[in-house]
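Try this one yourself first.
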């Protein structure tokens, strides 16, 4: 599989909690908010490569679980301890690391009872393996009714900006 690496931005693939693929969009680094990039850069810098941490101030009701290795990562966003999003960040720096993180993410997602009980087929999220663009952010929207639309919008923006910091060519590995 040939991987195409984009130096100007990253791809974002969207999935429903049952593994249904909603499509992929391209996001440019220069389309991200400098303010939120700074906030996310500080958050990642303070917490390191692997952490579970709450945000502070007006974002204190949000928490992020982040684990990264070799240019790829998995993250989960929670609102008041309710799951909202699960994402995988695939950097395209190491084919082996990318595959390992993708496999771990798919195993995790496919092991969730809600996914198994609602998946339209036996291989939910299978389209994720066919997306060649790198860097790639793939996000699972859990559709949690206890998370407000406003908070969903907020965690989507935060995850997008965390990905922007993580994938940025200016960001040290």
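Now uncover the answer:
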């Amino acid at each position: 599989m040939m991987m195409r690496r984009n130096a100007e931005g990253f791809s974002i693939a969207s999935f429903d909690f049952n593994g249904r693929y909603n499509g992929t969009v391209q996001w440019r680094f220069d389309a991200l908010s400098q303010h939120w990039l700074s906030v996310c850069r500080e958050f990642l810098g303070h917490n390191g490569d692997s952490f579970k941490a709450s945000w502070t101030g007006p974002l204190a009701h949000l928490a992020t679980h982040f684990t990264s290795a070799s240019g790829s990562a998995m993250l989960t966003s929670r609102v008041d301890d309710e799951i909202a999003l699960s994402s995988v960040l695939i950097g395209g720096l190491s084919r082996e690391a990318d595959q390992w993180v993708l496999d771990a993410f798919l195993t995790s997602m496919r092991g969730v009872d809600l996914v198994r009980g609602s998946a339209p087929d036996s291989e939910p999220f299978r389209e994720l393996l066919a997306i060649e663009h790198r860097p790639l952010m793939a996000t699972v929207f859990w559709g949690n009714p206890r998370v407000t639309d406003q908070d969903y919008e907020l965690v989507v923006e935060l995850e997008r900006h965390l990905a922007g910091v993580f994938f940025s060519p200016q960001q040290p590995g």
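Discussion: The mean pLDDT is 91. The chain has one domain: 4-167.
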